[in-house]
Amino acid sequence: KDTFTQINNGRRLDVSVPRRLDVLVPTPLLDHPHYLMEIIDTKGVDGTAIRPDIEGYVDGHRTVTILCTRYNSAPDLSIQGLIEHVNARGAETRLRDAGLLLVLVHSREAFGTKDDAGELASNSEEAYAIKQDQVGAKLSEVNADSLPILFYNANSDDAHDIRRKLLRRVE
Predict the structure, then answer these.
(1) What number of other Cβ atoms are within 10 A of residue 11's Cβ?
(2) Gap between the Cα atoms of 149 and 132, Å rounded
(3) Order of strands across the sheet with 149-152?
(4) How far is CA 3 from the centre of its chain?
């Protein structure tokens, strides 16, 4: 795991890392009649999200920044740190106007969500609503309470619905 992390983050001198890796998908992931879109994955933020490449994308006026985080740690510390850094640089309107937090739900982990009274959520919609409040409170602590939050579980949620929501954000 440590070796993979070092290679993934370009920290192994004996392994070269390409500047760019193109993955061709046979069908458009986000198809829009008026926009030609490119999806750029910044390799994750295992450690720090405060990097020049990520700052460049956040600052880009033609960029929608999608901050992805795992359900159980949403929003994780690296995302909170990035938001604080963006705010400190005076670019908080870029995330508010052209950003969103995408909470990725793995398998059935949403069913372990408890409300303030300690009651388990009875379905994914209820779990997402509870988690939305919890995540919103954490985002409020870093002055990002206006950042839209979306939830997606690839095993059970409708892919067309998440695409529609993402395209709405692009528009």
Answers:
(1) 11
(2) 7
(3) 65-70, 99-104, 149-152
(4) 25
- Cα torsion 26, 59, 71, 170: sign: negative
Please report, for residues 73, 90, 96, the alpha-carbon distance to residue 85 in angstroms, rounded to integers and kept in the order given.
19, 9, 14
Under the banding of pLDDT at 50, 70 and 90, the label for residue 132 is: very high
> What are the residues facing 103 on neighbouring strands?
69, 151
Q: Indicate the SS3 state at residue 34.
A: coil
**pLDDT band at 30; cut points 50, 70, 90:** confident
Give the Å distances, CA to CA, from 125 to 24, 151, 164: 33, 10, 18
